[in-house]
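Lab channel / #folding
Pinned by the channel admin:
"Please post every new chain as: sequence first, then the structure tokens as a reply. Keep commentary short and put observations after the output so the thread stays searchable."

First post following the new format, from NK:
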Amino acid sequence: MKICNICHKISATDQDHLDCVQKRSIEMENKDFKNKIPEKLNLSMDKQELGIEVRAILEHLSKEKDKEEEI
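Reply from TO:
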């Protein structure tokens, strides 16, 4: 028996729980995706051509990104 490195609960096997590993993988993919949105869409160059809704979404995502970096 071993303690899972992710959830810190007892694991019957000598490895981390599979669901914990998958959850952490999904969380990392989501974080990477959010961080790469402006680069993928090439929107960081000319924001004036975007609609007001798209600019609001981008501002919201960048604020969220900044909050995560502070933590």
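NK: The first helix runs from residue 18 to 41.
TO: also worth noting, The radius of gyration is 18 Å.
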